[in-house]
Amino acid sequence: MTTDLKLTHLIFLALLIPSLAYSQDSNSNAFGSTDASLYELKGKVYKLPEYTSYLPTNLEEYPHIATIYNDSLNIPNQKYSNGFPGVEDVFENFAVDFRGHIYINAPGKYFFSLGCDDGARLTINNQKVIDMSGGGSMRFRDGEYTFTKKGIYPIQVEYFQGPRPWIGLMLFCDNKPKPNKILKLSEYLPLKMKENEKQLELSFQGSGVFDVNSITLSNEAILMLGELIHFVKTEKLFKSILIEGHTDDVGSNSYNLNLGEQRALAVKNYLLKNGTTIPVTHKSYGESKPLLPNTSEENRAQNRRIEIKLVK
Question: Alpha helices of 102-237 — where are they, by DSSP H?
Answer without folding.
Answer: 219-235
